[in-house]
């Protein structure tokens, strides 16, 4: 992850803490995803070794640290949510027939669909083994039960979200309400489980509702900005072609708003390019410029900021300290980022 911001000390601290926790979680996962037949674990580790921000493990660790816990006791639980995250990515890529993820060929392109399905299944199962390896959960039967319930619930919601995504991809229409249902299931659910795990590991169950409120709103804001960048982001910064979501025909709130806000000629252009797969650069550039002039970008960021405000309201009820400051910095970064 690149540097975030400039002179704000808290954001600089965020970068360092993200890198530190990512390094610790990566080391744990590297040791945990080993065994025979080696082909299974090579396939399971393929996307993980390709990188990633590790935001969800970060959320687990910092929520636990807010209550004075030793992060080594919760590191396996942090890895568990990353295993779940990557399990869903492996299977999503098969369903969507995607060839690349994080700049590397997808698991099914390298290892074939049968091995990719098995790799995803193994990652799912390993998440529960990692929970069993977490010292903070091993020592408390009630906490462990709650943790298993949290991860299981999140996985079910993720599957429901992927099903909804599949159904909506074939639907003739798509509304803002559809979008929010989808985002809460596919993005917020695992952020919510991450926050819950940190609180559960600390046995501070009275904070669970506020943990959920923080994480759900941050997850919505994260996806709003992600979808905005997929539409008008600078490819030199995002690493994705400009207007990529238009070519792929993705149904996102920025695109729904663009269809409503653009003048007739540009709106018809968007409809003609949406899902075309190979739209020419000149048409895409013209469309992106029209969208930028329409005010859609400011509107989406304002909606994302409103979710972050709600997120921070929930966070304010937690104990003051470095961990809370870092979670606040993460929420602020989520809405301000340009990559």
TrEMBL record:
<dbReference type="GO" id="GO:0008299">
    <property type="term" value="P:isoprenoid biosynthetic process"/>
</dbReference>
<dbReference type="InterPro" id="IPR008949">
    <property type="entry name" value="Isoprenoid_synthase_dom_sf"/>
</dbReference>
<dbReference type="Pfam" id="PF00348">
    <property type="entry name" value="polyprenyl_synt"/>
</dbReference>
<dbReference type="GO" id="GO:0046872">
    <property type="term" value="F:metal ion binding"/>
</dbReference>
<comment type="similarity">
    <text>Belongs to the FPP/GGPP synthase family.</text>
</comment>
<dbReference type="InterPro" id="IPR033749">
    <property type="entry name" value="Polyprenyl_synt_CS"/>
</dbReference>
<keyword id="KW-0460">Magnesium</keyword>
<keyword id="KW-0808">Transferase</keyword>
<keyword id="KW-0479">Metal-binding</keyword>
<dbReference type="GO" id="GO:0004161">
    <property type="term" value="F:dimethylallyltranstransferase activity"/>
</dbReference>
<protein>
    <submittedName>
        <fullName>Dimethylallyltransferase</fullName>
        <ecNumber>2.5.1.1</ecNumber>
    </submittedName>
</protein>
<dbReference type="InterPro" id="IPR000092">
    <property type="entry name" value="Polyprenyl_synt"/>
</dbReference>
């Amino acid at each position: 992850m690149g540097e975030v911001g400039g002179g704000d000390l808290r954001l600089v601290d965020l970068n360092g803490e993200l890198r530190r926790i990512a390094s610790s979680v990566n080391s744990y996962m590297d040791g945990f995803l080993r065994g025979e037949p080696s082909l299974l674990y090579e396939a399971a580790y393929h996307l993980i070794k390709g990188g990633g921000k590790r935001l969800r493990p970060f959320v687990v660790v910092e929520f636990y640290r807010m209550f004075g816990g030793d992060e080594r006791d919760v590191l396996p639980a942090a890895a568990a949510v990353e295993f779940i995250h990557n399990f869903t990515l492996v299977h999503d890529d098969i369903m969507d027939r995607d060839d690349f993820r994080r700049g590397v060929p997808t698991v099914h392109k390298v290892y074939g669909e049968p091995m990719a399905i098995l790799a995803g299944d193994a990652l799912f199962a390993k998440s529960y083994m990692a929970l069993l390896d977490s010292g903070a959960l091993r020592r408390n039967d009630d906490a462990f039960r709650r943790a298993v319930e949290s991860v299981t619930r999140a996985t079910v919601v993720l599957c429901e979200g992927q099903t909804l995504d599949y159904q909506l991809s074939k639907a003739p229409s798509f509304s803002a309400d559809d979008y929010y249902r989808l985002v809460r299931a596919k993005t917020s659910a695992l952020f919510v489980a991450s926050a819950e795990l940190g609180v559960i590991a600390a046995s501070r169950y009275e904070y669970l509702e506020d943990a959920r409120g923080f994480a759900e709103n941050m997850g919505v804001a994260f996806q709003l900005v992600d979808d905005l960048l997929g539409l008008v982001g600078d490819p030199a910064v995002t690493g994705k072609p400009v207007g990529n979501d238009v070519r792929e025909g993705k149904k996102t709130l920025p695109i729904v708003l663009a269809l409503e806000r653009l003048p007739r000629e540009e709106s018809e252009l968007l409809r003609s390019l949406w899902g075309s797969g190979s739209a020419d650069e000149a048409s895409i550039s013209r469309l992106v410029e029209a969208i930028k002039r329409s005010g859609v970008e400011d509107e989406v960021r304002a909606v994302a900021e409103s979710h972050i405000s709600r997120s921070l309201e929930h966070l304010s009820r937690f104990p003051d300290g470095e961990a809370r400051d870092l979670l606040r910095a993460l929420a602020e970064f989520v809405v301000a980022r340009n990559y």
